[in-house]
Amino acid sequence: MASTTLTTVPRRARKPRGADEPPRSIAPTPLARTLGVIVLVVAMLYFLVPVFWLIVASTKDNADLTSSFGFWFADWNLHTNYDSLMGWTQGLFWRWVANSILYSVRAGVIGTLFAVMAGYAIAKFAFPGKKIAVGVIMAGLLLPVALLTVPLYIEFSALGLTNTIWAIIIPSAVSPFGVFLGMVFAQSSVPTELLEAARIDGASEARIFFTIVLRLLSPAMVTIFLFIFVATWNNFLLPLMMVSSPELKPVTLGLYGMMSYFSPDKGAVMLGALLGVIPLVILFFTLQRYWRSGLAAGAVKG
C-alpha cells in the first residue's frame, strides 16, 4: 500500500505591524502617501514662510526692504528698529502688548466658563425653548463678527462703556462656537449616570458642575479658551471703534496707527508685529497637547 507524503507549504513570515500603522485593508497606497506628504509640506511652507519673512524684515530698514532679497538678511538694524519702535510709540508698545494679553485672557476665561456652562445645560437638561436656543447658537456661527460691531458700539455708547476695557472684553467673551463645542463635548463626555449618582448623594447642581463636570470638560475648555484668546488678540475693528485712549489700545490697533503715519518705519513695524505674536506662539506651544486632545475628542465622540 503506497504511502502518501503530505508536504507543508511554508508560510510567509509577516512583518509585524507598528502601533501607529493602519490595518492593511485601509492602508493608503504609496501614491496616496506621497500626495499626502506633498500637501503637508506645502501647508507647512504656507504657514512658516511668512513667519520667516517677518523675522527677516524686522532686521531691515526701509531701504533694505526694497533693495535686498526679501527672504534673507541685509544690514542688521534690529537695535535701530527697536529704538524707532519705542520712540514712535512713546514707550507704549509693551503697554499695548500687555493690554492685548489682558483683554484676551479675561475674555478667554469668562467666555470659556459661560460657553461650557451653556453647552452643558443644553446637552444635559430639558427646558422650554431648547431647540430655539440651539437654533440661535447655530445662527450665531454664521454671522461675521464685523457685522455686529456697529450695533455693539451703539449699545455700549448708550451704556457709557466705550473707551473702557469692558467694551472689548464683554463682546469678545461671547462665543457661539464655544457653546456649540461645549454642548457636543458634554453630550459625549459627561455620563448621565454619573450626574444621577451625584444627585442621589445630595450634591447640588452647582457643586456637580464645578467639581465633576468641569474636570470632564477640561480638554474642550482649553480648545475654547484658545479660540477666544486668538480671536480677541486678532480683533481689530472692535477696538478701533470702542477705544480712543492710547493707553487702552491693543497691539494690533497700535501698530495700525504706526502704519497709517506718513512714511512709516516699516522695519520697526515688522519688529513690533514679530514681538506682538510671541505670546501667541508661547501659548500654543504650552497648550497644544490639551488643544489637540480637545479637538480629537469632540470629533470622534460626537
Q: Descriptors for this entry?
A:
302 residues, mainly alpha, 14 helices, MetI-like fold, globular, 2 domains
Following the backbone from N to C, one meets helices and strands in this order, namely HHHHHHHHHHHHHH
The rough form would be described as globular
The helix content, as a percent range, equals: 55-70%
Q: Say which CATH homologous superfamily of the largest domain is assigned.
A: MetI-like
Specify Rg, calculated over alpha carbons: 27 Å
Explain the layout of strands and helices:
Layout: H1 30-57, H2 62-67, H3 78-88, H4 93-124, H5 130-142, H6 149-159, H7 166-172, H8 176-189, H9 192-200, H10 205-216, H11 218-234, H12 237-242, H13 251-259, H14 266-300
Describe this structure in words.
- The protein is built from 14 helices and no strands.
- It has helices spanning 30-57, 62-67, 78-88, 93-124, 130-142, 149-159, 166-172, 176-189, 192-200, 205-216, 218-234, 237-242, 251-259, 266-300.
- The chain is mostly helical and 302 residues long.
- The protein is globular.
- The termini are far apart.
- It folds into two domains: 30-76; 89-300, MetI-like fold (Orthogonal Bundle), CATH 1.10.3720.10.
